[in-house]
Design a protein that fits this description.
Layout (H helix, E strand, L loop, with lengths): L1 H7 L10 E8 L3 H14 L2 E4 L3 E2 L7 H4 L4 E7 L8 H14 L8 E9 L2 E6 L7 E4 L2 E10 L2 E4 L10 H22 L1
Antiparallel strand pairs: 1-4, 1-5, 2-4, 3-4, 5-6, 6-8, 7-8, 8-9
């Protein structure tokens, strides 16, 4: 009986590598390419770039960034370890400061990762549904994958609920799943 119980104890396992995704928004369109150059030096080439999207579901950032914000998403070819996400968020926060002026950010960089069953984003803001990673960084499962598509939670940001965003993350997931299949061969 004891031997049987010992076999049922779960053993820690390595997490599969995940797909780094970075969302950016700004009203200075040239900053997309400037920030991307720095990110590619650090994380390698991108394998997906979204179309330019309006960022108009909230006015929360208007005072800092101004109006007419646009967003893009990029995914990176090189897969990462899930546990590296907090370090990446700290790096992108420093990059936001580098591109800033007079104490204001001019571009917002939101790193996250895509795994087979979820999209995880990072933030520096705590809330009831966020998990603390350490060093002031929290993680949030923003979308979950179910029955062939990503779907939102009750806390999912309004823009991440849109068909355009869901389509983008479904596409990135296809790229990622193909990468995982190729790694296993």
């Amino acid at each position: 009986m004891r031997e049987e119980r010992e076999r049922r104890v779960s053993e820690p396992r390595e997490h599969k590598p995940v797909k780094l995704v970075v969302g950016m928004f700004t009203n200075r369109l040239e900053l997309f390419q400037e920030a991307l150059r720095v990110l590619e030096k650090r994380f390698g080439p991108v394998d997906y770039e979204s179309p330019l999207l309006p960022f108009d579901k909230t006015d929360y950032y208007e005072e800092e960034f101004g109006k007419d914000l646009k967003r893009k998403f990029y995914s990176f070819k090189k897969l990462i370890k899930a546990e590296d996400l907090p370090k990446i968020k700290i790096f992108t926060n420093s990059l936001e400061k580098k591109f800033g002026e007079k104490g204001n950010r001019l571009i917002n960089l939101d790193p996250g990762y895509l795994a087979p069953a979820k999209l995880v984003l990072t933030t520096t803001k705590d809330y009831q549904h966020r998990i603390y990673y350490g060093k002031g960084i929290y993680g949030e499962v923003t979308l979950r994958y179910k029955r062939g598509s990503f779907i939102p939670w009750e806390w999912t940001y309004p823009e991440y609920r849109t068909k355009e965003y869901i389509k983008i993350f479904n596409h990135i997931r296809k790229i990622y799943m193909e990468q995982l299949r190729n790694r296993e061969q």
